[in-house]
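#structure-requests
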Amino acid sequence: MLNAKKNIKLYLLFGLLILNIFIWSVIFGEESEILRVAFLDVGQGDAVFIQAPNGNQVLIDSGVNKKVLRELGKVMPFYDRSIDMLIATHPDKDHIGGFPDILKRYKVDFLLHSGRESESAIYGEVVQLTGLAGVRTVEARRGMVVVLDDDVHLNILFPDREVPELESNTASVIAQLVYGETEFMLTGDSPKAIENYLVMLDGESLESDVLKVGHHGSKTSSANAFIGFVQPKYSVISAGKDNKYGHPHEEVLETLGQFGSAILSTQDKGLIVFESDGENVFVR
């Protein structure tokens, strides 16, 4: 009987040791030289999760509902209950619909947004919850740089003005994520007119390894000149399977194909994760 009790104690101690090793390996494993950019499968909507090498995290948009929570569970440690910054590219439900659940579940420090307001109930709920949680809100403006790590920064390319009167998609926040020699172009639902405007401002700076295709692959986005200057090796389309809009549009697929970009879609692939070491980009 005594030996049995002794064996139980040994098993418990051994179990605690293994658990301790696992926890610390996860904690120490958070920091690396790798930038991760995950395009979450939230159906007909957008949600992009970014984790810098030092562990800083940004979530750009959140899809239409709480499905984003399940997707975040695939790319964040189970014990992590904080996200450094949320970015709302514009106030349409398929981009901010998951934010109320995010704000209830996670501690958030900042919310960066376009400045375009909405009369929708979901927008009002996001505003209320950010206020209750003490989240600091900032309007995005061209020239802003969000520093995520020593060599990782998010450059805001648009808006470059006050946008309360602009149509919602037209007001979308556009940002370029840069890590060393690699770049990700993140476009919200921005239309061709704004894409061409950015080409006119500084087309040479737009080149990026990965493009999040505008407006879920709608033909209202992905202007030829813009795609030509971005020259994406990979183009990611965030769209729902068998969606009623017919996204992605064949015209967009043809444009991307003309420039030799490899096309990946969440409706076909589900969660899509890229990793960058600052020199090269890999699909995981």
